[in-house]
């Protein structure tokens, strides 16, 4: 059959997205920056928006000045910026929890123990804990899972995962006090 029709459609589509990017990328970037207050994240939001536009090009008119196209771009951009903010909050929350945790066994204890105990000895002491405690400790500190993820993996509740980690740290601290 005739491949000329397919090529002209692809050429038209490519030209449309090139023009669309040139026409709206600056405005979208400014809008994203006004929400995110970070140039890098704003650029990411714009790229994600255009990628979504490309994937869903059948939902918009192939007309740069179309209101439908403009609405799609701005709605997608705002949703993307809100998703980025939401994801950033998760990381901020995780970092806040980590600083509250004050290290592995506590700031003073960490320094003292790590000076006296080798990594291998520490690992052996963790393995000597009951499996329910050592699993949570390894998942949290080594693999850096959240309590929610640990709960899902071990099929326990999030508060129980927190409690097990707290108890594991207390038991480990007692075991390491002999060093």
Describe the structure.
The protein has 179 residues and is mainly α. The chain is 80% helix and 0% strand. It contains 8 helices and no strands. Helix 1 runs antiparallel to helix 2, helix 1 crosses helix 3 and helix 6 crosses helix 8. The chain is elongated and about 75 Å long. The protein starts with a helix and ends with a helix. About 3% of the residues have low confidence.
Question: What is the overall pLDDT average?
Answer: 80
Task: Kindly state the percentage of residues in helix.
Answer: over 70%
The N- to C-terminal Cα distance equals: 80 Å
- What profile does the largest beta sheet have? none
Report the portion of residues in β strands.
under 5%
Overall morphology: elongated
Structural class assignment: mainly alpha
List how many beta strands DSSP finds. 0
* Sequence of secondary-structure elements: HHHHHHHH
Rg on CA atoms, Å: 26 Å
Count, helices: 8
Q: What are the segments in which pLDDT stays under 50 over at least 5 consecutive residues? A: 99-103
Topology:
Blueprint: H1 4-36, H2 39-55, H3 67-101, H4 107-116, H5 119-128, H6 131-142, H7 147-154, H8 158-176
Structure, briefly:
The protein is an all-alpha fold and 179 residues long. It has helices at 4-36, 39-55, 67-101, 107-116, 119-128, 131-142, 147-154, 158-176.
């Amino acid at each position: 059959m005739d491949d000329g029709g397919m090529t002209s459609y692809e050429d038209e589509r490519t030209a449309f997205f090139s023009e669309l990017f040139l026409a709206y990328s600056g405005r979208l970037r400014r809008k994203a920056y006004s929400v995110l207050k970070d140039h890098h994240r704003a650029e990411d939001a714009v790229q994600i928006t255009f990628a979504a536009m490309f994937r869903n090009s059948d939902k918009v008119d192939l007309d740069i000045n179309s209101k439908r196209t403009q609405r799609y771009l701005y709605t997608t951009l705002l949703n993307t910026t809100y998703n980025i903010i939401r994801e950033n909050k998760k990381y901020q929350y995780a970092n806040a929890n980590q600083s509250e945790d004050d290290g592995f066994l506590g700031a003073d204890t960490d320094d003292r123990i790590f000076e006296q105990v080798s990594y291998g000895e520490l690992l052996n002491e963790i393995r000597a804990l009951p499996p329910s405690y050592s699993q949570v400790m390894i998942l949290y500190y080594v693999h850096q899972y959240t309590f929610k993820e640990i709960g899902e993996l071990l099929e326990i509740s999030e508060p129980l995962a927190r409690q097990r980690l707290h108890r594991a740290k207390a038991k480990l601290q007692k075991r390491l006090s002999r060093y």
